[in-house]
Specification:
about 65% helix; about 0% strand
Length: about 150
């Protein structure tokens, strides 16, 4: 197979596309739905607002973070097509995801962390993201002309 073929590393590219779609969907849900989200992961009525002004400020911050996640997801999707140029960006994003997984432990609630709602994404952040970063690092040479 031609070394510059876009079909090179097809399994990696498919996984990057799937990860990108998942991250982008979370970004859309939070970015356009705020703290309450659009309901793609949880019903929007899970929260009761005690201070509308403080909630509005925090909701706006959550929307920013959702937009940030949407951008990260779009970069993963783009990497499905332009893997080599985005190698460093992907590894940085995966490292940030790993760090985010570690920060979850600051909640100090092991029952929650290892429960069915948090453990799957936590495992992805602490195990899946480093493995994916290693796969990208090993598969794509720094001086690659591969798309």
């Amino acid at each position: 197979m031609d070394q510059t073929s876009p079909t090179r590393h097809i399994a990696l590219r498919i996984i990057l596309l799937l990860v990108g779609v998942a991250i982008a969907m979370i970004g859309v849900s939070t970015g356009f739905g705020g703290i309450k989200t659009l309901g793609l992961q949880v019903s929007p009525d899970f929260i009761e607002i005690a201070d509308a002004e403080a909630f509005a400020v925090q909701d706006n911050h959550a929307r920013f973070l959702g937009g940030f996640w949407l951008g990260a997801g779009l970069l993963f999707i783009a990497a499905g097509y332009y893997l080599a140029p985005l190698k460093t960006v992907l590894i940085a994003l995966l490292s940030m995801g790993f760090l985010g997984g570690l920060v979850r432990f600051s909640a100090l609630d092991m029952g929650l962390l290892f429960g069915p709602d948090i453990f799957p994404p936590l495992a992805m952040e602490l195990i899946g993201f480093p493995l994916l970063a290693f796969w990208i690092h090993r598969s794509v040479q720094a001086d690659s002309t591969d798309r």
